[in-house]
Records
---
Amino acid sequence: MRIARSGRFVFVAQWIAAVLLPFFFFLGRGFVGAELGWLSFIGIVYGLLVVVLLLLPPLATLFDTEGRRARATRQAYDIATFVLWGGFVLASLSAPDAGDSGPLDSALMTWFGLSYDASAVVFTVAAALIGLAYLTTFVLAIAGLVRGRSAAATDAAPQA
């Protein structure tokens, strides 16, 4: 698990993305053509919980001594983070929403004429991708923390 060049970008952007991605998912998709319904109202309530959950892996990366020294993250963590972010964007564009008058169009429905069912399938795949990517990101953040701590302990051990 080596420190990557993209790790410097991820080291900073993960804090910003943890706030912007839930905002885009619940409210910002209205700016790109999606109609907003009950999901945007639910986002006001659960958006803060999602922000807190997305901040857990970045918090864990702060305790990776090698990564903090380099102000970067490890390559595997970067890949999982990019997949997580991509999943959030795809889910935002395909999220099926409904209002009091029935189903509302997602951004993909507006742009490409997808049916409600097709948009729901894309959203389901994106939601599964988000779940797997988040779990992977969290595990890799913990693994980087453990590896950084063990490397620091090895460096601090007296040489015989």
---
Amino acid sequence: MKFLAAFTLVPILCFAFQDLGSEYGGMDWLTDGYAAWPMMIGPVLMLLLFIKNRELIRDPRKGASFSQTIKIVAFLFLIPNVFLALSYSWLAVISVLSTLTILVADWQLRKQARA
């Protein structure tokens, strides 16, 4: 859960710092890429974490909170990454696919665990 929290908070903090620093602080070196790249890398790292901990999802008694948390975070990252793919860089498609993989694979693993 610590890694998931880090993968979630770092892109959000970079985005907030970029917005406040460039608008009010006069820091011209804070470009859009400063916020966009962590937002695109976060879901890929979450997918790796999901693959590493997929046994938690199969056992609902141990990993119920991990499963719910990673689905919520993946869905929250889906919307900004779709906009990044359309407006900033086509590489954000990888993040969108990673997020969709987390959502679909979680559903499939839970379905297999019930059977």
